[in-house]
Amino acid sequence: MLRFILTRASLLIPTFLGVTLLTFLLIRLVPGDPIEVRVGERGISPERLAQFRHELGLDQPLWKQFLDYIGGVLSGDLGTSLVTHNPVLQEFLTLFPATIELAFMAMLFASVVGLPAGIVAAVKRGSWFDHGVMGLSLTGYSMPIFWWGLLLILLFSVNLGWTPVSGRLDLLYYVEPVTGFMLIDTLLVGEYGAFWSALEHLILPTVVLGTIPLAVVARMTRSAMLEVLGEDYIRTARAKGLNSRRVVGLHALRNALIPVVTVIGLQVGTLLGGAILTETIFSWPGVGKWLIESINRRDYPALQGGVLLIASTVMAVNLLVDLLYGVLNPRIRHAR
Amino acid sequence: MTTDVQPVASRPPHPLAETWYHFRQNHGAVLGLVVITAITIVAILADVIAPHSPIAQYRDSILAPPVWHDAGSWRFILGTDDIGRDMLSRLIHGARLSMMIGVIVVTLSLAVGLGLGMVAGFFGGITDVLVMRFMDILLSLPSLLLAVVVAAILGPGLFNAMLAVSVVVVPHYARLTRAAVMAEMSKDYVIASRVAGAGPLRLMLVVVLPNCAAPLIVQATLGFSTAILDAAALGFLGLGAQPPTPEWGTMLASSLQFLQRAPWVVTWPGVAILVTVLAFNLLGDGLRDALDPKLKR
Amino acid sequence: MPLLDIQNLSVAFSTRAGTFRAVDGIDLQVDEGEVVGIVGESGSGKSVTSLAVMGLIPSAGTVIADRMSFAGTDLRTLSRSQRRRITGKDVAMVFQEPMTSLNPCFTVGFQIGESLKVHEGLSGRALRHRTIELLEQVGIPAPESRLSAFPHQLSGGMNQRVMIAIAIACNPRLLIADEPTTALDVTIQKQILDLLVGLQRDRGMALILITHDMGVVAETAHRVVVMYAGQVAETRSATELFERPRHPYTGALLDALPERALGRRRLPTIPGVVPGIADRPQGCLFNPRCPRAQDRCRAERPALLADDAGRARCFYPLNSQSEVTA
């Protein structure tokens, strides 16, 4: 098992280096010299310019700069934000929990609704329920979520007043961040009102961000179940005199989960991409909104670091999914 | 008590006819095709159909509501936006933009992806490793994030947004092509034409490519929906088409603050995106079912 | 009273081209402790018959019968949950493909124990003990260590033994084995067959052995039912059938046995295939492939008629001692 993990992990090294190279080149492809961005419109003396270039290592040959960059990345130095002058890594880590909290809730929502919907649709293949689930999930899959979010705000926040419009917490409350996860932090300090407020703030963003994964999970579950339900071992299970609940819920589902869990894991990338839109609409203080702001403020080191960190997160999650696949599938687990 | 079934005339139908038969069974796919045809006609005839110019500002009717509201009028059927432009005309011209985005993005990414995938599949070895590694790197970034970054590098604008979206989807075509090429390469008919002296270019384009067409056609159809959706998202984030271009995502972004006062300025562009994307997804799904022999019968 | 009594059973599937009767009015009686062989080519309806007995026909199929009773219970009137109490307990089945018939995600021990848990309420140590006992009975060496094995870790023969252990777990009164050896190596086939027959003899259970291999039937069955295109072509005791087959189809099947073809240069074959949904012939279903077919066979469909030792569906049977009344 350990060897399996190490082999899979080592396959990521070239990809990681590639992403690092890509983000390294990113800042150099941007129109305009980063120095000019930094000093703004004001004129600058050639001596100061040379000094800046030296400070940033820009007078070195490109390959040397890249090696320095990798060295920095590996020791946790992702550069400094041009706007706040804070280390990029620190900014990212402060905002990341908000994004994780949102993405986790969205995934939970997608799985809790999508799995049963897909299972029932497969069992009742061809029924009105099946057609309904398939139609809705294709609609969800086609949804421009930035517009979907606006519609939900219009309906539930503006017209009905059920949910807050934006942010993570009512201004009434202030909770010192411990873990950065609002649901946990509010409970840690015992502020139940704040907990409910945080939960309320999560509802709409969760639904919006979870819509596309929900559609994917439902469709994938349905097709995986349909395939498994036609297998010989399902006939064997029925021949044992097991009831449908046991045949479907245990024998079929256990096998169908193998591809479904993989797909759920692979949705994490989609989620982090969708977080850019969702966080922008709901003013959610996470890394997605921060990235867009960094672009608008031409804060390229922040963008560069953020992209590298998100890519690394996606790679780590994909590795985890790969390992989970091995755990779920006995044929893979025992193959070594 | 034996009911005899009449022997069925059993000449196998032409493959295209068979595909069309299966496609027609799928009502969703037919609906998708009808909607797409309608949108295409609207896009082509935008100048003739649209009642107003998409950028003409009618200062006397700012944020006029749609016709079915009490204050609405037939002059602006779907209402006007915050500077008095006719929503319907802007949506019609937006259809033209979206279809153009779809065509350009799919053509561009299909051409590049096809080329890379074929090269990787044909030559194998180090070429394959390098090309596919690069594709893996692109895939390890969330697609919208990658599009945002590319658009940020290239600078905002409709054409740059199309480039950005194209870059994002290239790996899908490349992977698909490579897999199809590798699967076909080991088949006897390819070996036969190679023995018959077909050169690599002929082998690639004339022999193997037509046999990989089915999955690529499906992917390209679904590619339209991705392209339209992502370009609209970039427009919404301010990284795509710039005002006053009547691109649907850009229209949404510029009318955000009127969400409460004039919901129609937000509703219609979104409906347009959703319907178009849904139509392409329906068509793509239908084509996949019709072209995939595994699911037939 | 027979243990299993089926009269005029039909199983129909609706397809795009119309309704297709996979099984068309068959009768089948199995006595307590009897071994009945059902023989026929692929597509003759053997497996569908057994699935109908098990209550495993998918919802696209319709099962109709004049009588369908097991140990005096009318199977047609049972509710689904009552039916499940018989299926897997009193009537059990072994399938053709051991490699795909076991669930790849569960251990062998779990899959055997499941029947015991559901039907007999066993759990804990008793369950484990009984499972090991079953593995021993089906001849699996080192049974304790096999409990936690997954199907993909065992060979096809071993998996078929596991399937048999599952089937006999609750001491069924009737075991249906659907081509239990077809997917296995020739050397293993004999072992599995011996195991099945041994278990049948020791436990006194009835056994329906479905096969396309006349040789297998010759070694094991007391009585044989020959099926063709969803109908019974001939039925009689095994000795009678092998000595004096009446139906030309049975005759052709027997001629195709290698041990009966000694001295011939080529093994005789039956030309053509079993008619499917679209090409059912007029008259006798076997007439296009029958060397003895006459005009009457092409016009009329023969009934299953009794003779001195059994029944055959033929106007002009082989080896007939008395004239068959039309």
TrEMBL record, chain A:
<dbReference type="Pfam" id="PF00528">
    <property type="entry name" value="BPD_transp_1"/>
</dbReference>
<feature type="transmembrane region" description="Helical">
    <location>
        <begin position="194"/>
        <end position="217"/>
    </location>
</feature>
<protein>
    <submittedName>
        <fullName>ABC transporter permease subunit</fullName>
    </submittedName>
</protein>
<keyword id="KW-0813">Transport</keyword>
<keyword id="KW-1003">Cell membrane</keyword>
<dbReference type="InterPro" id="IPR000515">
    <property type="entry name" value="MetI-like"/>
</dbReference>
<dbReference type="InterPro" id="IPR035906">
    <property type="entry name" value="MetI-like_sf"/>
</dbReference>
<keyword id="KW-1133">Transmembrane helix</keyword>
<feature type="transmembrane region" description="Helical">
    <location>
        <begin position="302"/>
        <end position="328"/>
    </location>
</feature>
<comment type="similarity">
    <text>Belongs to the binding-protein-dependent transport system permease family.</text>
</comment>
<feature type="transmembrane region" description="Helical">
    <location>
        <begin position="102"/>
        <end position="123"/>
    </location>
</feature>
<dbReference type="Pfam" id="PF19300">
    <property type="entry name" value="BPD_transp_1_N"/>
</dbReference>
<feature type="transmembrane region" description="Helical">
    <location>
        <begin position="256"/>
        <end position="282"/>
    </location>
</feature>
<dbReference type="InterPro" id="IPR045621">
    <property type="entry name" value="BPD_transp_1_N"/>
</dbReference>
<feature type="transmembrane region" description="Helical">
    <location>
        <begin position="144"/>
        <end position="162"/>
    </location>
</feature>
Automatic annotation (TrEMBL), chain B:
<keyword id="KW-0571">Peptide transport</keyword>
<feature type="transmembrane region" description="Helical">
    <location>
        <begin position="29"/>
        <end position="50"/>
    </location>
</feature>
<dbReference type="Pfam" id="PF12911">
    <property type="entry name" value="OppC_N"/>
</dbReference>
<feature type="transmembrane region" description="Helical">
    <location>
        <begin position="144"/>
        <end position="170"/>
    </location>
</feature>
<dbReference type="InterPro" id="IPR050366">
    <property type="entry name" value="BP-dependent_transpt_permease"/>
</dbReference>
<keyword id="KW-0653">Protein transport</keyword>
<protein>
    <submittedName>
        <fullName>ABC transporter permease subunit</fullName>
    </submittedName>
</protein>
<keyword id="KW-1133">Transmembrane helix</keyword>
<feature type="domain" description="ABC transmembrane type-1">
    <location>
        <begin position="95"/>
        <end position="284"/>
    </location>
</feature>
<keyword id="KW-1003">Cell membrane</keyword>
<dbReference type="InterPro" id="IPR000515">
    <property type="entry name" value="MetI-like"/>
</dbReference>
<keyword id="KW-0472">Membrane</keyword>
<feature type="transmembrane region" description="Helical">
    <location>
        <begin position="262"/>
        <end position="283"/>
    </location>
</feature>
<keyword id="KW-0812">Transmembrane</keyword>
<feature type="transmembrane region" description="Helical">
    <location>
        <begin position="97"/>
        <end position="124"/>
    </location>
</feature>
From TrEMBL, chain C:
<keyword id="KW-1003">Cell membrane</keyword>
<dbReference type="InterPro" id="IPR027417">
    <property type="entry name" value="P-loop_NTPase"/>
</dbReference>
<dbReference type="Pfam" id="PF08352">
    <property type="entry name" value="oligo_HPY"/>
</dbReference>
<dbReference type="Pfam" id="PF00005">
    <property type="entry name" value="ABC_tran"/>
</dbReference>
<dbReference type="InterPro" id="IPR013563">
    <property type="entry name" value="Oligopep_ABC_C"/>
</dbReference>
<keyword id="KW-0813">Transport</keyword>
<dbReference type="GO" id="GO:0005524">
    <property type="term" value="F:ATP binding"/>
</dbReference>
<dbReference type="InterPro" id="IPR050388">
    <property type="entry name" value="ABC_Ni/Peptide_Import"/>
</dbReference>
<keyword id="KW-0472">Membrane</keyword>
<protein>
    <submittedName>
        <fullName>ATP-binding cassette domain-containing protein</fullName>
    </submittedName>
</protein>
<dbReference type="InterPro" id="IPR003593">
    <property type="entry name" value="AAA+_ATPase"/>
</dbReference>
<dbReference type="InterPro" id="IPR003439">
    <property type="entry name" value="ABC_transporter-like_ATP-bd"/>
</dbReference>
<comment type="similarity">
    <text>Belongs to the ABC transporter superfamily.</text>
</comment>
<keyword id="KW-0547">Nucleotide-binding</keyword>
<keyword id="KW-0067">ATP-binding</keyword>
